[in-house]
Write a structure and sequence with these properties.
By secondary structure, the protein is an alpha/beta fold. The protein is about 35% helix and about 15% strand. The chain is built from 8 helices and 10 strands. The chain has helices spanning about 30-45, 70, 85-95, 125-135, 150-165, 185-195, 210-220, 255-270, and strands at about 20-25, 50-55, 80, 100-105, 115-120, 140-145, 175-180, 205, 230-235, 250-255. It has a 5-stranded parallel beta sheet, covered by helices on one side. Helix 1 crosses helix 8 (about 255-270), helix 4 packs parallel to helix 5 (about 150-165) and helix 6 packs across helix 7 (about 210-220).
């Protein structure tokens, strides 16, 4: 038997359309932290028969930029946004008419402007504890490096740092901090210039992330300083390669895979009323 031209089979009664969730991310290659989160999200979605659509976003945009069609063309049922801190790009993402989950946001973009849910890792208390620990070990002068306007998480880490100093009766020397924007391609040069400007080194540096901490280790060793004998350095996230450094970078551990789970579950809850769910 030959089917007529243009014949189409009718879908099975229980056949349901596929569900696609986009993971929109900037520069995930800069840290295993982001790759671990994406991996965990993919595992969660696979168990629910949901397709993950990977969308790479730029770090900066001009006035002519439009979001990729994968986010606006109707194929994505929702999106999870990672490592995006450009203010204009965040507002464009917020305008997308699909459920959204953001992991962190720029400090200049309040969560209520995102038109979606947001997850923040614990930041303030962790930095408070490690800074307090170093003070109790006898270190009295501290520096902090990290753009606090870049991400809300960076600002919270700085707040924890300041609170530790205040609670232990120590005053902050502003000359020891580099909290203004740092160019993505000029980290090393700007940090080296900052170190050159210091009349003396502090007893310890607290860093907003491990990437900056590793740059600092190299620059301090270049100056003949011993870590941690002459100066302590503490990062944030605890990348696996931190232990391969000599000396290894002390860091505040964040279990990135655990962040992927709530991000995926929050997205599943946002689309729970859609017909794909079998639970």
């Amino acid at each position: 038997y030959e089917f007529p031209e243009n014949f189409q089979f009718a879908p099975l009664a229980d056949e349901q359309p596929p569900v696609n969730i986009a993971v929109a991310v900037c520069r995930p290659e800069t840290s295993l932290f982001w790759m671990n989160i994406i991996h965990q999200i993919a595992k969660e979605f696979t168990s629910q028969n949901i397709n993950l659509v990977y969308v790479y976003l730029p770090t900066s945009i001009d006035e002519t930029y439009v979001l990729p069609a994968a986010l606006t063309g109707g194929t994505a049922n929702g999106m999870i946004v990672l490592n995006v801190y450009n203010q204009r790009l965040l507002h464009l993402l917020a305008e997308a008419r699909i459920p959204k989950v953001f992991l962190d946001t720029a400090d200049s973009v309040p969560p209520e402007e995102l038109n979606g849910d947001m997850i923040l890792m614990e930041n303030k208390n962790s930095v408070y504890k490690i800074t307090s620990h170093m003070i109790e070990q006898g270190r009295q002068s501290f520096g902090f490096i990290g753009d606090i306007s870049y991400a809300k998480s960076n600002h919270q880490r700085y707040d924890g740092f300041l609170k530790a100093l205040d609670d232990h009766g120590l005053s902050l020397d502003p000359s020891m901090t580099l909290t203004t924007p740092i160019g993505i391609d000029t980290y090393k040069e700007e940090i080296e210039s900052f170190l050159d400007s210091l009349p003396k080194m502090p007893d310890a540096f607290v860093w907003a992330n491990d990437h900056l901490g590793c740059i600092l280790l190299q620059l301090l060793e270049k100056r003949g300083l011993r870590i941690p004998q002459d100066i302590a350095v503490v990062g944030f996230v605890n990348e696996p390669w931190d232990t391969l450094l000599n000396p290894p970078l002390s860091s505040i551990e964040q279990f990135s895979g655990k962040l992927g789970e709530p991000a995926a579950q929050m997205m599943l809850e946002a689309i729970d009323g859609m017909p794909h769910r079998n639970t």
